[in-house]
Amino acid sequence: MNKPLLIGPFTQLLPMTGLPLKGALKDEQLPIIENGGILVSEEKILKIGVFDEMKSADVDIHPIEGQHVCLPGFVDSHTHICFGGTRARDYAYRNAGKTYLEIAKAGGGIWDTVTQTRKASQDELIDGIIARSQKHVKNGITTIEVKSGYGLSVDEELKMLRAIKQANETLNATLVPTCLAAHMKPKDWNQDKNYLDVIIKELFPILKTENLANRVDAFVEESAFSPEEIKPYFQKAKEMGFDITVHADQFTTGGSQVAVDFDAVSADHLEASTEKEIQLLAKSNTIATALPGASIGLGCAYTPARKILNAGGALSIASDHNPGSAPMGNLLTQASILGTFEKLSNTEVLSGITFRAAAALRLKDRGKLEADAVADFVIFPTDNYQEITYHQGQLKPSEVWKKGINVCK
């Protein structure tokens, strides 16, 4: 049996432990271990502490030379990185002043990606997921939520979710699949049948049988599904044992109320949320997920993150990496920019991409560096953790560890 591996010493080790799931956080609350070390065995963390105090003949050592900061591997709790094609034309049209409706009439919008994703083979989708995931890993992200939603039929949604499952088997990251068959109403659907009813009856059972997803999402919006339309869908999903998450309050309100009513794990977007929705979410167990990449891509307001935290809510920050509204896909850059506009402390930003993001996926074994957690962590070449957000994603990790293995040197 191999000896446990001691990694360090780190100038600063940020375990992200002892912090509450909900509410505002001050940087004075952030725990920092100086000259810290992480003891790892069989994919799990055995112990964290002062490096010199953990050295012994019973451990092997992976030395960290120079000054470095270590913190948990980042968790991106909302992405759409399974897709075909590009929407560069949409981006140019938006910047030139065209409206969403004008872009859609010109052949753009979500339906453009649906068309291109349907044309792609499952192998092509797998290759795309792997390539995008590898970029995320290099930026310190070790857990990535991935949605379907560009298939919009039983067979095409299955193709996407099977591609996500296969990609997950070959990656140095954990992919968490989510079924977003209720992304929009398919333009080519036979109107004699209720689309959501068909998804419930024909797709949901296969998701369970093939273990393709345990999470169901829906876009609750005037351009997609109304609260009244989606409630029976979510009710059936809950009865079948699926976790619920919601695309909520992106352009109009109503989605966050649905999320709270169904005890959703998270309500994502929230750019249009008012004080009513903020208070509603803060008093619930639903994680509020900000998606600053969509605000940057669309040129719209940011999620009211400061108000959510001040009201006592839990805030996750995710990239929304997708081909249309959030093509950048750089979580740390987006989170840092959100922090600037919403006046978030470093502790709030880092919590939003570590343990609070893990909670938005109901993952209790990551997002913190502590005994029995998965040994996912990221190492930055600096002596001060404040440099990480200060450089807005341009300070790159020197090492990324996944399940106790250095996967990005």
Give your account of this protein's structure.
The protein has 409 residues and is an alpha/beta fold. It folds into two domains: 5-72 and 367-408, Urease, subunit C, domain 1, CATH 2.30.40.10; 75-359, Metal-dependent hydrolases (TIM Barrel, Alpha-Beta Barrel). The chain contains 16 helices and 16 strands. The chain has helices spanning 51-54, 88-95, 100-105, 110-119, 122-138, 154-168, 195-209, 227-239, 255-261, 275-282, 292-298, 305-310, 331-342, 346-352, 355-359, 386-390; strands at residues 5-13, 33-41, 44-50, 60-63, 69-72, 74-76, 141-147, 174-182, 215-219, 243-248, 266-269, 287-290, 315-317, 377-380, 399-402, 405-408. The strands form two sheets. Strands 1, 2, 3, 4, 5, 14, 15 and 16 form an eight-stranded mixed β-sheet that branches. The protein has an eight-stranded parallel β-sheet with strand order 6-7-8-9-10-11-12-13. Helix 9 (255-261) links the parallel strand 10 and strand 11 (266-269). Helix 5 (122-138) packs across helix 6 and helix 13 packs across helix 14 (346-352). The longest helix has 17 residues, at 122-138. The chain is globular, with a radius of gyration of 21 Å.
